[in-house]
Amino acid sequence: MTNALVKREVIRLAMIGMVDGNGHPYSWSAIFNGYNERAMQNCPYPGIPEYLAKEPKENLRIKGAKVTHIWTDSPEDARLVAEASLIPHIASYPEQVIGQVDAVIIATDIGGEHVERCRPFVEAGLPVFVDKPLVDNESDLAIFAQWAREGRAILSSSSMRYSKEYMPYRLSTANLGQLRYVTVAMAKSWERYGIHALEGIYPIVGPGFLTVRNTGTEDRNIVHLKHRCGADIVISVTADMYGAFGPVLLCGTSGHAYVSFQDTFYSFKAQLQAFIDYLRTGERPFPFAETAELMKLVIAGIRSREQQGAEIAVKDIAPSLAGLE
């Protein structure tokens, strides 16, 4: 416990930011605080009260941490989230929480905004959890990498890293032989949701992505990645393909497996618990180098699409970060 980043018995968290299409301030805050059932029915994302209601109250909350402060880009959103997720303090501006909390959660998923959203808290020495994707461009990745080198406490992930449905194949794919083909499908945009597909399979195939080729469009991304293990990985991210949120097909030299992502709540809770464990122990749940490689894949997918499907070598994305631990 001597390496703990936070030593308070109950860790005080600030939930910062809210953008269109992302209801994490509602759900993530409820996972720490519990929620007001009546007020949560007004959540503009109906899936959130639906999956929260499925959880037994005694299993809902992460113990030892509470969201005590919230700030959102729209003041009205902050009022609604605070009422639904039992948050006692609404900040007038983000930096107001400095000195009042022990750590900050940046609950937005537009990578190009994250450096500036995080900067005041990083510079104040507060640990920060950043929603996926951490970045969507090289210059911002370089800034986060420098902060990581300086020992700043920054963690970012997709909840799909923690999917219980994928867990058996994170432990072993030996029964499938050597992987040769992996495919994942996802809705919405490559910039904001491609990372769900990428990070969902990353603990299965591991580091070692070589090239990225996106032959699609902004609305229909078809991304072919090559991996040093010999597998071809194809990810489809299509704007309106809501019927496909993370189905995975793994094909190897000896067998195949199909996995369907189902339990959103479990993944969110495990993801947030990993951040709290990091604050308690000072031990990262996975190296920052994994996040850096994943961000290079996101960036390469954008660059390839912009270059009409050119094959992009991962080593050519932010080459100064080679060897980052």
UniProtKB/TrEMBL annotation:
Name listed for the protein in its UniProt record: Gfo/Idh/MocA family oxidoreductase
The UniProt entry, under SUPFAM superfamilies, shows: NAD(P)-binding Rossmann-fold domains (SSF51735)
UniProt xrefs under Gene3D superfamilies: Dihydrodipicolinate Reductase, domain 2, NAD(P)-binding Rossmann-like Domain
Q: Which domain of life is it from?
A: Bacteria
**Which residues are in the Gfo/Idh/MocA-like oxidoreductase N-terminal domain?**
63-155
